[in-house]
Input
Amino acid sequence: PLYTSSQGYFTFDHLPANSRVRVFTIHGEEVYDQAANFSGIATWRAENKVGRPVASGLYLAVIESGGEKKILKLAVVR
Output
C-alpha cells in the first residue's frame, strides 16, 4: 500500500521502454495514463488526471507492452 503521509508515489520500474501504464479505480474510471520512460520507469503520485489526490482505496494498474498485459492491485491509504 501507499501511505501518502510518508510516501509520495508508486514507482513502476523494470519495464520495457515505452510500456503503457494505466491506473483505474475499481469502478473502471481511468485516473492515470503514462508511458514508461527510456529507463523503463513510470511514477504515479496518487493523483487523478487533473492533479487532484485520489481517495483511499483499491486501484488497478494495467501495464501493456509488446502485446502483453499485466494487471496489478494497488492500495492508497490517506
The chain has a mean pLDDT of 95. The first strand starts at residue 2 and ends at 3.
